[in-house]
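Suppose a colleague, Dr. K., hands you the sequence of a protein chain of 414 amino acids and asks what its three-dimensional shape might be. Before reaching for any lab equipment, you can write down a predicted structure in token form. Begin with the sequence itself:
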Amino acid sequence: MLGKNNSVNPSFILIITMICGGGHLQAADAIKKKILADNPETTILQVDIFNDWMGKFFGSFFTQCWNTPLRKGHHFISLFTSYFGIPIADPIFFIPIFIQAFLAFQRYPITEVIDTQPMGTSAICLAMKLSNRLKKQKLVLNKILTEIPTRRAIHFFHPLKLMPKLLRKLIQLHIVEPFPQEQNFFKRQTGLEKDQIQLIDPPLREAFFDQMLLDSPKRKIAISFQSDVEKLSIVKIGKLENYIEEQNEKSLTLNCQNKSKIITIMLGSQPHTKVFEKYLDGFINSCKKKPHISYFIFILGNPSSPGFEDFRISLLYLDSRPKNFHPIILSIQEQKTVAHLLKYSDLTITRSGGLTSMELLKVEQKNARIHTNFLKEGKPSLKRMPPWEIGNAEVLIEKIGAKMIHPDLIEFLE
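The predicted structure, expressed as tokens, is then:
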């Protein structure tokens, strides 16, 4: 089990992650928090493989190569990066990653290595094998699959399959349910043996495991803010004055009416704000058709993402909005708020990233919609999504009845 130390000496754990996509870092933070809760004396060194091991210049460059197309809506560039980013970057940065990993193994008294990202696996394992020989250790690389295990998780699986067998023996792959039913699935997809596959709980924030929190009143939602200015902005944009039940200097609690719709839109760490605008246009039309229903639309975004603040300000001056239209634009929120919204919203619109998909499965959200930018024959399609997101979406469709949605279509509200 991750982070469990059977020796008398305190553990020293190296966690390797990356900032791209958000889910890899979020998984690393969740694992780190759980380890420290169980074993407070554990020392943890967390490194971002891009910025810490590839250097800030190249790390920033590759981070932008991933984030910018998502933010600007350049879907073909994003798709190219999805398929070819790691195959191109792995050989280019093999030596720097190998050196940095080897130095870390030699410099620190590492007892366990956890890796929540797909880059540089061969280089890390080669450094580990050499360090094991020099220090007479038996370290293995605990690779955390931050996607639902499907054949489409190619960014994790293909590098493993291409590794030399001697290095692949150092891998322990940790996966979440649902377990693939295909016979010899992992042998075919990764080259790993059965005893190298471990089933674990999803690496999610602790709020998703708090049953008391998840059983809290459905229509009462606590939201946090960083300043009085942000609070005033949230209240004014959403016209929430009559719905605030409690408030203090850091948060307020909304009491949404029983005859209302709670809708959550959460499109990842680098959302394209034009997509938010299209969805809101659709909701405005729905509000006009059903004036007796209040629509509380929670939009969770990244405040540091270019265009997000302009999008928020533009809503302050939105003309002729219906009285029952309440857009609530939120930046960083407490994990309990995110868990509550994903469980109790009447509708969720998200991408099918790995951790978001795990969260939707965990709370058993029955009204999930998976965002896509592509229409085929007038219907939302899985095509042109990153392959692993297609795999995650297929599982969500099968397990919880999720459906695809495109911002130009609003039939889901009719």
